[in-house]
Design goal:
- By secondary structure, this protein is of the alpha/beta class.
- The protein contains 11 helices and 16 strands.
- The chain folds into 2 domains: about 220 residues, DHBP synthase; about 100 residues, Rossmann fold (3-Layer(aba) Sandwich), CATH 3.40.50.
- About 30% of the residues lie in helices and about 20% in strands.
- The strands form 2 sheets. An 11-stranded mixed sheet has the order 1-8-2-3-7-4-6-5-9-10-11, sandwiched between helices. Strands 14-13-15-12-16 form a 5-stranded parallel sheet, sandwiched between helices.
- A hairpin with a 6-residue loop joins β9 and β10.
- α1 crosses α6 and α10 packs parallel to α11.
Amino acid sequence: METKVKVVDENNIDIRILQEAGKVFRSGGLVAFPTETVYGLGANALDSEAVKKIFEAKGRPQDNPLIVHISDLDSIKNLTKVVPPIAEDLMRNFWPGPLTLILPKSDLVPEVTSAGLDSIGIRMPSNRIALELIRTAGVPIAAPSANISGRPSPTDVNRCVEDLNGKIDYIIGGNICEVGVESTIVDCTVYPPCVLRPGGITLEMLKKIDSEIYIDPAIMNKSNESFIPKAPGMKYRHYAPKAPLKIIQGDLQKTIAKVNEMVQNYMDEGKKVGIMATDETLYYYKNGIIISLGSRDDMKLVAQNLFEALRSFDDKKVDIILSESFEEIGLGIAVMNRLKKSAGFDIIKV
């Protein structure tokens, strides 16, 4: 398959490109496109055969549900059976934006899209290209991240091309993704509402709307094989670089000392070591290939840089990656959720 790649200026959108991509959606094809979180790989959410192609292109497990992307609130009526008041409150405050709401699905949504569940995740992205593309397509778009399943999600169009060139019909490029981690997912089929995946909309922000909202404790721990995921990213290892990743967790000074010790041991074994550091610790590491995610005082930047850093270590062909940990508050919860899954929960406490 030949994949067409077109780059769009978010501030001066070439509508002809979006119209062409919209035809691909309506004819049952696949299009990768930018959102504010990560790049998405989309298909017409109401076309079962088109949605199946997403799973094939990504190598994605069939029991991992997809998120449906919409461009206006009217679309909700056809996709859900009921919209609870708390969901309406969250929509008013955070849509368009990096928030997915789990709602009871209507019969119009195919089972392949919801992975056989009676609920569906829906969000309205804030990225201008994504919104205009969905409007132009005229259909709701089911879209997981635009990468091979299990790999770090792409925040740059070149990473989409790297993973999906020759496997899908169309790739639309835009800016580097602003948020850098996937959307926050809130289950609104239960009360109190439950966060099934942390993201750019933090728990603190959600609690301002309803103080009863809480994070499912299971999402920060390793799940077992019998677990039935209600939202993407809950069951399988995700965001994994090619090299094994280990998280060093604890006091920062002890972390630095442990990382330096481990780097030396690995180098003595002839291994090439990557270190995922921060601006505050960058110069304390003596050896290895070091990438800073940014300052610990700017978790937005850390989140934005996370997946690209993991991809960069792949480019440099390291044998092992050692990462510092982050405090699990605010956006740090989302960062640590992704890091733990990247590492397969291989955590060394110091």
